[in-house]
Every structure is written in structure tokens, then in C-alpha cells.
Amino acid sequence: MTEQTPQHEDNVYDSNPSGNPEFRSLFDQKISRRNLITKSAGGAVALTLATTLVGCGSDDNDNVTGTLPPEVDKQPLPKALTFKPVEKNTLNAFTVPEGYEARVLFALGDPINTAYAEWDDQNIASGPSFAMRSGDNHDGMSFFGLDQAKGRYDAQVSDQGLLVLNHEYINQKHLHPIPNTTRDLIRSEDEVIREVNCHGVSVIHVIKDPKTQEVKINKSSPFSRRITAASRIEFSGPVKGHALVKTKTSPDGSFTLGTHNNCGNGYTPWGTYLTTEENFDGYLARNADDNRQDLVENALTRYKIDKGQSAQYKWNTPKASFLNQDMYDRWNTSITADKAEKDYRNSANCFGWIVEIDPFDGRQDPVKRTALGRFAHEDCRSSRAIQGQQLAFYMGDDSTGEYIYKFVSDAKWDAKDVNGGYRAGDKYMNAGKLYVAKFNFDEATQKAHGEWVELTINNSRISAYDKYKFADQADVLIHTRLAADAVGATKMDRPEWCAVNPTNGEVYITLTNNSNRGKSYATDAANPRNYFDQDSGKTDLKGNINGHIIRLRESENQTTATKFEWDIFLFGAEQDSLPNVNLSGLTDANDFSSPDGMWFDPRGVLWIQTDDGAYTDETNCMMLAALPGQVGDGSVAKAKSGDQSQVTVQGATLNDSKLRRFLTGPSGCEITGVTMTPDYKAIFVNVQHPGGEWPSNHPKALNASLGKGTRPRSATVVITRKDGKIIVGEDLEQVKKA
């Protein structure tokens, strides 16, 4: 996500001054999906409000552990990419290689239940109905194979599954009827309910035809549900019950309401989904006279919760008539009472977490896993699950000058915990160590190395930090950024998605861009470039314009390691850039800018997605396929750093057979979210904030969204080969023929 995207959702602020290198029942009622509650609100459609029930709708769906799962058929890794690269373009269309086709599957406003009408530009459905409709701005996403007989996760099943995806933020212009109250001081209650419901996560049941590979949504499935910015979410781990998360809604600090600004994602080895809460600050208002102690003010400022700020969407402003006024007041994080249990001063501390969702169990509330720290979480990727070894979870904090983290579980992986649900989550994500990364380069040896610094109250640099007084370890987790400041972590160029190579366990992190690199932030070996866009004629395009992807290998390949080696896998660049800018030697077939989303499929193919504003005069955002090597396969290089050079370490140059463009999205969009069925025959991607009329102008035969009208809508797209074979499997097929 970049500052060039059309809404404030990114809020790509620089807050790091450290000196380091449907109405009330919609929200709280649990009812059967067979019992439809019908209400009317100004002519709105009938509402089905069951958003929190068990997936299979039976009492015998308890998660059962104790049986080792079979090995997943990973398929061999292609030795080369031989599909025809998609050419750069600025069309308002979704473009895939020859021999492939892209089907629009699930767009903003599409119902997930047959009781609801389809999206209609001219008759926008009521706010409460969006508790059973697709939210907006689709983002991170994962596919979970479904054992239909048992109603449980099966990593080998491709023809039935639950597709779980984030809805990061909203485009108000395209969401509401006209006229509306988006610019008014006091918002309409129905509009705010619509916006609240358009955030969060969708769980949809998809079915793939094993012959044609066509994917459809099962809108009669009891598994389909929404988790929104109003859903009840439990706290778990060290922060649960802490004084700093107590609110009027939850005086004991055991839960909160809602998850929002859900950007990147992850999934666990036991079969649950991880959604990340990113730029939550813009949703919260704070009064100008909300005076706090100086050190507390430092902490609020570090998370961009400044005095006198108004909430981005003004969710705190409606005068309640359908819901309790607290449903709106909770978006103001000011002191308004004599103690925290009577107001929402701690609302800000309730967001910025990793949230675990069990797609197969809607009876239990999702869980905020507080041991993994609080910041603008962009992604959360598990290490390889190796029997008897501890799991690690890698995470980025997506703001300028922020950090890369990992959490190492105290528990060692046991494959018998597959389908363990939230109980397994308690085991692996409630107790462990949280670390932040420092990147170093040894001039004498010309070696790139780094260290993981544990964020613990027992570290004197944290306990004695002069800019904030940490009370205990839970406070360290609530104010993770400040703890990372205290230990001198390396400020990075907006760490976004993480990916773990299944073949060797190496960790990749996208660093999208930083216009202040070389200005507020001196270049260093891990963030080495500072340059102008030589052919744009715009002097405002400067710093690390096109971003890069860094990767690391843990010492002795152990997740518990506190040392690592690293290099820069790829530098984003235009193909005709200066050689010391285009250090990766990108060509017309694979040049890109602002890497963001990223995922390794189980074979080891790396999928790279872009969210760009610097190269969109020549091409829309895209997704590329890559066949990477390993850390250390390249050489020392000199990157352009203003009028000088910055020494760094880069990976081996990938020619067009190892890196090429797989798709481009419609104009105005970000390409984000990527997952695949286990048979590698269907790959899903998300199109966020498209422009023009997409997807209504997508070929009708390949558009499963039945929405009416021409407003642009974010959507999930599924891509298959026309011959029904494996995605990017052409090389191996040619070998077999030979």
C-alpha cells in the first residue's frame, strides 16, 4: 500500500522520531441462519443477521486433533517460467497470459447468502445488510481445503474450500447512495453501519469443478460469514485483562469490538487464518483538550493518535437511534470519565494486533493474539512447520521508518495439532519471545548480517527508556514500537508482506518505498537507494521510489536464532533506469515498482504484487512470478545514493525465465492478496480500488458477480488455465513431452 492510493487508508505517516539507525442485533445477537430476521429501514432490503454461528450448523463439528495429516503433494518446482509475459499496459481491464482466463468471483456488495439481493448502483442496500455481503477493498487472502464430510480443514482438498479474505478500508465515493453524509460533520447512522460492516473479513465457501476448474461460490453454505469492525473479538495472551485495554465495553479488558484496516494476512500450520490490523489510527478521534502525562503523550504520538485529530470516517459522530450510542462513542479515544472502565481512552490500544480466525468454527469469537505485539501489522507469515521445532511468525510494520519483527513460540510444533483451532492458537501464539531486527554490513569482510533483539522488560534499554515508562511486559507488547526504538532497531523503507520459502525456510520482506530515504533517513546497506525518477520530469519522485525486497536466512536455519544473514533479493526499477538504480537488471518482461503483496506457493514459486504510484504512467499494478535462489547467491554492489554510492549486497540477477510478469490489473488499482488451491490449478488474487468501470466491463462470460451498475468495485479474481492444467506448469509439461 502506498501514499499514491486514492484514500487515506494507507496513512503512510512517519511517526518514528527515535534516533535509531444491521442495528443492535447486528452486533451482539447470535441466531440461527435458518431464522431470518426481517427488518425495514427506509425501504432497505430484508436482513439476515446471523454472522457468528458455527460453520457446519451441527453440534458434532468439534475440532478433533490427534491424527497426523497426510503429506501435501507439493509438485516439483518449475526450472523455468515459459508462459508468455503480460505486456505493461494502462487498460481498464484485467490481463493474463495467453492460455489463461480470469473470472471475477466476488465483488463489493455481492451477497454471501441467497436471501439477499445483488448489488445495485441505483439501489444501494442498507448498512446492516452488509453484515452478509462482501466488504470493500479486498486484500490479504488464504484458501483452506474443506473436508465436507467432517466439516474440517484438509490441506489436500482443492475442489471444496473456504476462501478467507480481508477488507482493508472503504471508498466512500462508490459505497453510498447519492446524496450522502460523508462530508457532513454528523454522519448518517445507516452509512456508518454500512462502512463498519464493509471492513473486516469474509469467509466464503467455494467449489471448483475438477474438470473445467471453474470456481463458484456456494451461497447456501452455512460456513459463509463476515467478521466486521463491530464483531466481538477476544483478547488472548499477556495483554488480556491489562489496565491499558480496559474500556466501557469491556471493563475487565477481556475483549473488544471489531477488527479493521485488515491488510496482509497469514495462516497457521493447524489450519486457521491470521488477519492483520494495520493503520488503525485514522479511525479514532481524539479531543483537542484530551491532556495526558508527557510520556503517555509520547506513546500516543508514536502511534499517531494526536490531540485534536478527527476520525477519518467520523464513525464517532452519529446520533444513535437504532444502536446504543456507545457503538459510536467508542471511536473517540479521549478521556471523558473518571476512570478507564467508564470511557474509551484505551480504544487505540485495542487495535493493531494479529487476529486469529478459525474459518471452520463460527461459534467461538476470533482472538487477538497479543504476544505478537501491537503496531501497523502488514502481514504475518509462519515459518516452516517442522516436527519438534519451534514456530516463528514474521511480521512487518508498514509505515515509513518502521521495523521488521518475529515472534518465536515457546511450544514446539506437533503435527497432531492440525485442526486444533483456537486451542492450538493458545498453545503456539500466547507464549513466546518477540524480537525486532537490526541489519548490519561489515565493511571489512563485505558481509551482510543481522541480529534479532528480544523485546523484553528485562532489557535495561527498555525498562530504563527515557521516552516512555514501561510498566510490565504487557506494556512492552502494547507499545511495541517504543520498545523497538529503545533497543535501536533498523528503520526500514516500509516493511510490508513477508513470505517464507518452503524449500529452505528463508524469509522475504517487501520494502515498498520511502520518499524520505536520503532525506530524513540516511541510506544504509539494507535501504541503500536514494535517487530521482530520471525520465518523469517530476522532482517530487525521489528517495527509494520503486522499493525492494530483502531476504534473510536464520543462523543454522533455526527459527530460534538471534543472528541471520541477508541480502537484497530484488530492486524495483524501470527497465531503462540507471544501472546503479536498476541493480537487478530488470527488463520489459519483468520491471516493476513498489512491491507489496508477496507469497510462496508450496512448490516454491514466489508471487510478487505491486501497489504503485510511481510507474503507473506506463503500466498498471501487476503480479509477477519468480523462481528465486538463496541468500548469498549474488554479490556486493554499489547503489545510487544521491551523488554518492551506498555499498550493499544483492542477490543473483534473475533473467526473464526466472522472473516475469504474470498479470496486470485494471487502471487505478492495487493488486494484492494471493492464494492457490492445493492442486495448483486455480490462483486467486484481489483487485483493490480499481478505477473506470471495472469489473462491470469485464467479459460477461467470465464475471460471476451479478451486481448492476458501473461503479468501480474491488473484487476477488480467480485465474485458471484454459486447458485445466497447473498454473505456471508449462516448463515441466514440455520436459515430459520431450
Describe the structure.
The protein has 10 helices and 33 strands. The two termini are 44 Å apart. A 9-stranded antiparallel β-sheet has the order 14-15-17-18-19-24-23-22-21. Mean pLDDT is 91; it is low at 2-11 and 22-65. The protein is 9% helix and 27% strand. It is mainly β.
Average pLDDT figure: 91
Q: Per the principal axes of the C-alpha atoms, what is the gross shape?
A: globular
Cα Rg: 24 Å
Main sheet makeup? 9 strands, antiparallel
List low-pLDDT spans. 2-11, 22-65
Q: How many individual β-strands? A: 33
Tally of helical runs: 10
- The percentage of residues in β strands lies in 25-35%
Helix/strand layout:
Elements: H1 23-28, E1 100-107, E2 138-147, E3 152-153, E4 160-167, H2 172-175, H3 189-197, E5 200-208, E6 215-217, E7 225-227, E8 232-236, E9 255-257, E10 262-267, E11 273-277, H4 294-302, H5 326-329, E12 354-357, E13 367-369, E14 377-382, E15 390-397, E16 400-402, E17 404-412, H6 421-429, E18 432-442, E19 447-454, H7 460-463, H8 473-478, H9 480-486, E20 492-493, E21 495-500, E22 507-511, E23 548-554, E24 563-571, E25 595-600, E26 606-610, E27 622-626, E28 635-641, E29 644-650, E30 659-664, E31 670-676, E32 683-688, E33 715-721, H10 730-737
Parallel strand pairs: 8-13
Antiparallel strand pairs: 1-33, 2-3, 2-4, 4-5, 5-6, 5-7, 8-9, 10-11, 11-12, 12-13, 14-15, 15-17, 16-20, 17-18, 18-19, 19-24, 21-22, 22-23, 23-24, 25-26, 26-27, 27-30, 28-29, 31-32, 32-33
